[in-house]
TrEMBL record:
<dbReference type="InterPro" id="IPR018584">
    <property type="entry name" value="GT87"/>
</dbReference>
<keyword id="KW-0812">Transmembrane</keyword>
<protein>
    <recommendedName>
        <fullName>DUF2029 domain-containing protein</fullName>
    </recommendedName>
</protein>
<dbReference type="GO" id="GO:0016758">
    <property type="term" value="F:hexosyltransferase activity"/>
</dbReference>
<feature type="transmembrane region" description="Helical">
    <location>
        <begin position="380"/>
        <end position="402"/>
    </location>
</feature>
<keyword id="KW-0472">Membrane</keyword>
<comment type="similarity">
    <text>Belongs to the glycosyltransferase 87 family.</text>
</comment>
<dbReference type="GO" id="GO:0005886">
    <property type="term" value="C:plasma membrane"/>
</dbReference>
<feature type="transmembrane region" description="Helical">
    <location>
        <begin position="487"/>
        <end position="510"/>
    </location>
</feature>
<feature type="transmembrane region" description="Helical">
    <location>
        <begin position="281"/>
        <end position="302"/>
    </location>
</feature>
<feature type="transmembrane region" description="Helical">
    <location>
        <begin position="454"/>
        <end position="475"/>
    </location>
</feature>
<feature type="transmembrane region" description="Helical">
    <location>
        <begin position="232"/>
        <end position="251"/>
    </location>
</feature>
<feature type="transmembrane region" description="Helical">
    <location>
        <begin position="428"/>
        <end position="448"/>
    </location>
</feature>
<feature type="transmembrane region" description="Helical">
    <location>
        <begin position="309"/>
        <end position="332"/>
    </location>
</feature>
<feature type="transmembrane region" description="Helical">
    <location>
        <begin position="6"/>
        <end position="30"/>
    </location>
</feature>
<keyword id="KW-0808">Transferase</keyword>
<feature type="transmembrane region" description="Helical">
    <location>
        <begin position="258"/>
        <end position="275"/>
    </location>
</feature>
Length: 593
């Protein structure tokens, strides 16, 4: 062979060359993700001379995803934490931070109004007139300029003269359910966002948070490498996070699943290193996302990690208690009320149902009629189907876990002892914890498409010991011929993971769509105005963010892990048996000759 080719092959395959190439690929992908999030997702590329162009050039900070989080932090730093869920105060805070002078001069729909419409709750119908009239009277200036400057509708002098102490009292203490609402985040979110909300510059905070999200992905990749004890390179783990479903959406919208993934990975790292209390403290910080904290409690509970579980609960509870001297108990009660309103809205709102990835939203996609008014959409059939699917997964998880647990204790379950602390019998890496991780993700109560990133944690628990679980299976049909071909079956884990990455990186952009109509279930529906129409259950299938393909992928992985637990079989075991069968058949043919 040519010596130059040998040298070139040695150079390309050298560990240092591969490591440098991997990091260069990470930098390239991260740069592409950041450029798309910063300059393409919400950037206004129109000419500066165009009257429809935004003055500030980018409106990413005005979305409910980032704007809602930032509003929580700004309510804290502006001294309004005790009125965190008062929509009147939120209006005023946002009016100062998002002035109309930064919008397009020809804008009809304004940032503050759109953001507040996306928040939970409704305003007091008398609120605009009372607020505008009060400010006009106190300012001693013409009414119209004051009201327009604050984004409030103009009022007449007659209205301002009719202001009484009762009106002012109604402004300070609006009747419920009016005026209670806002972003659907617990008070802890205000403290988390406070460093980015020290001033009225939400756009700067939005750009800064995007850099933080990239940093969270990098640190989470380091955690995956440490969890696998070096079997997965830091660069490869980071690249996996960058291209996995949910990361791009979180980076564009300024959402926090990258931080949640970081906590999940590093908490489990400490657990596998024999430091369950530290790991539990890390997981306890998930209290800023209560639905995920409650859902993932199932893992340490079923794996009998009592110290980890106790540390997690104590940390989460302590974080809540530490906020009480600042917020008071009333703010937390208001948050529960806002959450109740959001839960009802979540079940019938088109965007929330179709952008969600939880089990509750899947049946509602084709069981609800989206053409009728929102308050009339919910049906008992949709409720039974949604909760029935959730209970099915929960019940199956418990039933499958229990015999799998007994099989592991009897010594029939393959596991790498390096990844389990010697004081525990249940494995911390492999199909059992991955099965529970996928179940926790599926059982979470209401979450959106960018939270698909957290399902990567289940893949990580399998990939951390990939040499045992991700080997291909070699099969060979019995044949009288000596040259019968071998069939290589690749790992199911790699296949599903690859399809999910393909979905994120390619298929979402195609936006292909098909419609399935079930005419067997046609029925005549009476509308509120007395008219009737024909209603047909309709199922839309496509490659867009409106379709829960990530949930289907996680369900397939959950089922694969369930089969491994029920059979007590591993990919490595199946490969060894297959190789032995092939070797035995070859020996028998040789002896026959």
């Amino acid at each position: 062979m040519n010596p130059n080719l040998i040298w070139l092959a040695g150079y390309v395959l050298h560990p240092i060359t591969r490591a440098v190439a991997a990091w260069l690929l990470v930098v390239a992908v991260a740069t592409g993700q950041w450029v798309h999030a910063r300059y393409q997702a919400f950037e206004d590329w129109r000419s500066p001379d165009d009257p429809e162009r935004r003055v500030d050039g980018n409106h990413g900070h005005t979305t409910i995803d980032f704007g809602g989080q930032w509003l929580m932090g700004r309510m804290l730093t502006s001294g309004n934490i005790e009125r965190l869920y008062h929509r009147d105060i939120q209006w005023l805070v946002l009016s100062r931070a998002m002035p109309r002078s930064q919008e397009s001069p020809t804008a009809v729909d304004h940032d503050v109004e759109l953001l507040m419409q996306a928040c939970i709750g409704q305003d007091d119908p008398e609120r605009p007139a009372i607020v505008a009239g009060t400010l006009a009277v106190l300012a001693g200036s013409p009414i119209a300029p004051v009201t327009i400057g604050l984004g409030l509708p103009p009022i007449t002098k007659a209205v301002s003269k009719s202001l009484t102490l009762a009106s002012v009292d109604r402004l300070q203490h609006p009747p419920l359910p009016f005026n209670r609402g806002g972003p659907l985040y617990p008070p802890l979110q205000a403290f988390l966002m406070a460093p980015l909300a020290q001033s009225d510059h939400p756009q700067w905070a939005y750009f800064t948070l995007q850099w933080c999200i990239l940093g969270f992905g990098l640190l989470a990749g380091l955690g995956i490498s440490v969890l696998s004890r070096g079997q997965i390179w830091w660069s490869v783990a980071t690249l996996l996070i960058l291209v996995f479903p949910g990361f791009r959406g979180s980076l564009q919208l300024g959402q926090n699943p990258a931080l949640s993934l970081l906590l999940l990975v590093w908490g489990w790292v400490f657990l596998t290193r024999g430091r369950p209390i530290v790991g539990g403290i890390v997981w306890g910080c998930l209290a800023f996302k209560p639905v995920w904290a409650v859902s993932f409690l199932l893992m340490p509970l079923l794996l009998r990690q009592w110290k980890f579980l106790a540390a997690m609960c104590v940390t989460g509870g302590s974080l809540v208690l530490l906020t009480l001297p600042v917020t008071g108990i009333g703010v937390w009660k208001e948050w529960l009320a806002v959450g109740s309103l959001a839960s009802s809205l979540y079940d019938v709102d088109y965007n929330w149902v179709h952008l969600s990835r939880d089990l509750f939203g899947i049946p509602r996609r084709f069981l609800l009629d989206w053409e009728i008014p929102r308050d009339d959409r919910n049906t008992w059939v949709a409720n039974v189907a949604s909760w029935g699917l959730w209970l099915l997964i929960f019940d199956a998880t418990i039933r499958i876990y229990l015999p799998g647990c007994r099989f592991r204790q009897s010594g029939g379950y393959a596991s790498d002892s390096r990844f389990a602390h010697r004081s525990h019998t249940l494995p911390l890496i492999g199909p059992l914890p991955a099965f529970l991780a996928f179940a926790c993700w599926l059982l979470c109560y209401h979450f959106m498409y960018y939270d698909a990133l957290l399902s990567l944690f289940g893949f990580v628990l399998l990939l951390a010991n990939w040499k045992s679980w991700l080997v291909p299976v070699r099969l060979r049909f019995d044949s009288p011929t000596a040259n019968s071909p071998h069939i290589l079956l690749n790992s199911w884990v790699v296949t599903i993971l690859g399809l999910m990455i393909l979905l994120e990186c390619l298929l979402y952009g195609l936006k292909a769509e098909a419609t399935l109509l079930a005419h067997h279930f046609d029925r005549i529906q009476t509308l509120p105005d007395g008219s009737t129409k024909l209603w047909t259950p309709t199922l839309h299938i496509g490659t867009d963010y409106l379709y829960p393909w990530e949930t289907i992928g996680v369900l397939l992985m959950w089922g694969w892990c369930a089969v491994r637990l029920l059979t007590g079989d591993s990919d490595a075991d199946r490969k060894n048996r297959s190789d032995c069968q092939i070797e035995s058949s070859e020996k028998s043919r040789e002896s026959g000759r």
